[in-house]
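User: Can you help me understand a structure? I only have the sequence.
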Amino acid sequence: MSHVYRLVISCPDQVGIVAKVAQFIADQGGSIVEANHHTDSVNGWFFMRHEILASSLQQGIDAFEEGFKAIADLFDMMWYISDSEKPKKIALFASKESHCLADLLYRWHEKDLPGEIVCVIANHEDLRSMVDWYTIPFHYVPVLPDSKPQAFAEAEALVERYQADVIVLARYMQILPPKMCDDYAGQVINIHHSFLPSFVGARPYHQAAERGVKLIGATCHYVTEALDAGPIIEQDVIRVGHAQTIDDMRRLGRDVEKTVLARGLRFHLEDRVLIHGNKTVVFDG
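Assistant: Let's start by predicting it. Here is the structure, written out as tokens:
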């Protein structure tokens, strides 16, 4: 994979943004190896993501950032630039179910995940031996009814200690407190075992079976204070029929859950997700 810088922009839509940005990159000697644009014509908002070959910038990234500020101010941009050689640090939150956690650990081990897993924080001990095999720090933080504030404070302290850039709820099965949702807005990713907005909350496969649905799915989304209602990153479905039991749905659903979570996390790690209100623009390449 080439060493690139990722320039990510969102701003009010107006004429000349693409031309101005492209000219600035060209003036810096920059070679654009991937370009994505989208205009939300209803809300009048513009989104852009460019990958720039790092070796092509004549004066380096610091000079690029300093010079780009004038363009950002001109168009009232929200923007940042990231370095593909500085992977984001990931804190995985888990409980008892292993399929999502095991899948992400395997992808990381095989260098198929463009990020660095720095720790696993779990409210049960069940998955410790699996995590230990990967030589990743495992922290048991029980979440008990009478000590939830202390437990989440401890978990948040661990996230800060490891300087994690993103938290992934790999079937964590706990509702984060509002403060934590606010502190890490746009940085907490969850997998919900339903095709949201259908069947929010607990026991979605039971809800699906009761409705006799023909498709079940999974949704990867950012966590907000509103349960299972944050901006959606990725979704997928699988067909089921009247003969499938709830256990069958769980088995089929686990495959969808882990692949949807992995794809959604990859999009986030590669700076392909731009949040606007409660929606996302995902430049999936």
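Now, to help you interpret it: The longest strand covers residues 4-12. The mean pLDDT is 93. Let me know which part you'd like to focus on.
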